Amino acid sequence: MRWVVILALLIASCSKSNDPEVIQNAPPPIVQADSPDVDVLRPQTEVITYYLHPELDYLVPVKRTIFTTDDPITRIKQIVETLSIPPDPEQGLALWPNLTVVREVFMVDGEIVIDFDSSTFTRISAGTTRELFMVYSLVNALYRNVDNCTGVRLLIEGQVQETLLGQVDIEGVLHERPKIVLNPIEEGVVVQEIQ
Hints:
The chain is α/β, with parallel strands linked by helices.
């Protein structure tokens, strides 16, 4: 008998109320910030990113979409993340690994400093040319898409390193290298778009 009473109370507490006052005062449903529904509603903007040409030793510009933000640090993090997402292989090849880990980003007087976790580079084997394109796909993308960028400094585990992967000097401030881009972006030039 006691079980019947407990079961009846449990069922009664779980049933939905049709009382308009209860429904009207119910809290709104919780939507998680990382929910796809939230992302669909967020405004987006296009950026130009750079990938390795599939056949030639050049970078190629590709339009990508990121979430609109007024915060340059958030914009920089989104650009780094976008560089690790491969475009269509006919358009270009991603140089940054999909598990790129950014520890910290800051900007001082136009100089962007990105501190990477060393785990980002442990499984990459690249020669001088590929490492050069990897570094400058990032540097060129930041110059192109971050207002007032005057230089880029890359750190690993918070420390200045001689190289990223063993070949290309990254000890100093890095500047844009438009000459390694096969199809520089100019007025009227069509770039490849990725949805």
